[in-house]
Amino acid sequence: MKKFLAAAVLMMASVFAVSSVQAADVDLKDPYKMVTAVADNAFQKLKANKDKISDVKFRKDLVRNDLLPYVDTRYAGFKVMGTNLKKASAAERDAFVDAFAEYIVASFAEALAMYNNQDLVAPEYKKVSDSATQVNAKFLIREAGKKDLELVFKLRKNTKTGEWRAFDLVSEGISMLTAKENELSPLIRERGIKAVTDLINKHNQTGSTEAIK
């Protein structure tokens, strides 16, 4: 599981890591155009900064500044909170989402260190209906001498803005979001949203990438 998640996070970070200047050219209103445009730019940025990939701060800054704008961390955080969402105040929900987003940054940053010139095969473009609110986009990560890894990005449209963002990644039937739910939901049920938010914040400060217990 841990090995899979590392590979999956690497691919997700690679696909969505695009510079803020290039982000202006990304069509957030079309899920396939969005992931394809970001992917085309992402590998160029990673390859151009090979000498910095060993720098943890560089990797975290890259993920925090260039990845998170394309991930619906609020929706993902709310999914992790589950039924406990209704019990939390608006302030507690916001605090949890912020802590959860930074927790994701650490995981993605660790995975970026694994980048080694893998190739990305983007999905065939498909026209999405205006009424669609969720789309799955399948990518392949290809490395010489190894079997292709199939990764399905789950994208969600914000019905208020019409913009699309990723909220989950699935490979071989394993969902990253479900893995986070399985990790954190039991703690939330036992200790409450605020206590788990504090726990995540303390964990983030350590720089550890191990699962929270």
Please give the structural blueprint.
Layout: H1 2-16, H2 20-23, H3 31-48, H4 56-67, H5 73-81, H6 90-112, E1 119-121, E2 134-142, E3 149-157, E4 164-171, E5 174-175, H7 176-191, H8 193-206
Antiparallel strand pairs: 1-2, 2-3, 3-4, 4-5
Helix pairs in contact: 1-6, 4-6, 5-6, 5-7, 6-8, 7-8
Instruction: Give, in spatial order, the strands making up the sheet with the most strands.
Output: 1-2-3-4-5
Largest beta sheet, briefly?
Answer: 5 strands, antiparallel
Structural shape? globular
Mean pLDDT: 83
Distance between the termini: 17 Å
Count of runs of 4 or more consecutive helical residues: 8
Helix-strand category: alpha+beta
Over all CA atoms, what is the radius of gyration?
A: 17 Å
Strand content: 5-15%
**What is the total tally of β strands?**
5
Order of helices and strands: HHHHHHEEEEEHH
Contiguous low-pLDDT stretches (5 residues minimum) are 14-24
Helix share, percent: 40-55%
Which tags fit this structure?
single chain; 213 residues; alpha+beta; five-stranded antiparallel beta sheet; 8 helices
Describe, in short, the structure shown.
By secondary structure, the protein is of the alpha+beta class. It has helices at 2-16, 20-23, 31-48, 56-67, 73-81, 90-112, 176-191, 193-206; strands at 119-121, 134-142, 149-157, 164-171, 174-175.
Word description of this protein:
This protein is α+β, with helices and mostly antiparallel strands and 213 residues long. It is built from 8 helices and 5 strands, in the order ααααααβββββαα. A 5-stranded antiparallel beta sheet has the order 1-2-3-4-5. Helix 4 crosses helix 6. The longest helix has 23 residues, at 90-112. Residues 14-24 have low confidence and may be disordered.
